[in-house]
Structure formats: structure tokens, C-alpha cells
Known about the structure:
CATH class: Mainly Alpha
Oligomer: single chain
Largest sheet: 2 strands, antiparallel
CATH topology: Four Helix Bundle (Hemerythrin (Met), subunit A)
Mean pLDDT: 89
Number of helices: 7
CATH architecture: Up-down Bundle
Amino acid sequence: MSASEEDRALMSAEDFARVSAAIEALIAAVRPDQWDADTPCTDWNLRQLVDHLVEVNYSLAERFGGPGGDTCDDPAAAYRRSAQALSDALARPGVLDQTYPGPFAHTTGERQLQVRMADLVTHGWDLAQATGIPADLPVDLVQNALGFVEKLVGAFARSGKFGTPQPIAADAPILDRLAALSGRPVG
């Protein structure tokens, strides 16, 4: 299997559902007193981070021809609905093969899903750090996100969406390496 075919095999609606289920579990485990807690994303508290995840899911769902939506008072329900909206959009025939405008460039749905997956996995680390809840994310998808971000770290840093990569040991856990590459201090 070529690298391109391998990327394609990893970028599917099923894999989005796997990551989303893990993120949803993290969100559902947040205690009510934690919603105002700081996160490694210095501009966002925990509630704002989850609102971001919801908004981006709906934005991508709309881009792919699906429904939009908004946040609500129940962060876990809001996330679940937004993930379902994106899953429904991903189920449309040919959606990953078409080209769409995006935050960085006009790219295929597959590439935009890959960006989304890297974002979700990285924010999964943020959620875990802010709450103390272990991030039980699919290792194969964390590895894919790390490889993707390694290839495009310069573009992400220039976009202002990521901070400057932080130092980390080469043998650190893979999710920590992704977080450090995304500009988060890992300690």
C-alpha cells in the first residue's frame, strides 16, 4: 500500500467516529466544577475549548453539504450532535474526493478530514491535561496525526493556529510528542 493509500485508509468516516467517541467520553467525564478550568490552549477555558470542537465539526459538516448547528448548555450533548452532523456529511457519496475551500487552502475532503482529525486528537490531549482524565485515543490515529503534523508543522505555525514546537524526548509518548509539536509545553 502506498503512503497515499495508507493515508486514505486512515481517513474515513469510521475513523472520525472512533476519534469522536473518545473525545465524547472525555467531555462526558468532565465534572461540573471543571468547565471554567484553564487548558493548554491559553485563550480558552475548558468550556470554550469544547465549544470550538463543536463549532469546527459543524463548520466542516456544512462545508461537506451537511447541516449546521450551534452549541447548547450541555457540552457533551452539543459535541455529540456536532459529531453526528459531521458523520452524516461524511457518509455522502464522494465527499472525501471532492475539493472544498478550507481554512488553509482549497483541498479535498480527505485532506480536510485529516486536518480535522489532527485537531481533534491534539485537543483530546488538551482535554486530558485540563481535567486529569486519561486520553484514551486510538493509537493508530494519533500516529497518523503526528505524521501529518510533522509534514506540515511550518504551515501550521505560520497560520497562527499552532505555537512554536516545544522540545520533547524522541521516546516520549506519541500523544505528548504531538502536543509538543503543536506548540504545547509538555511537562
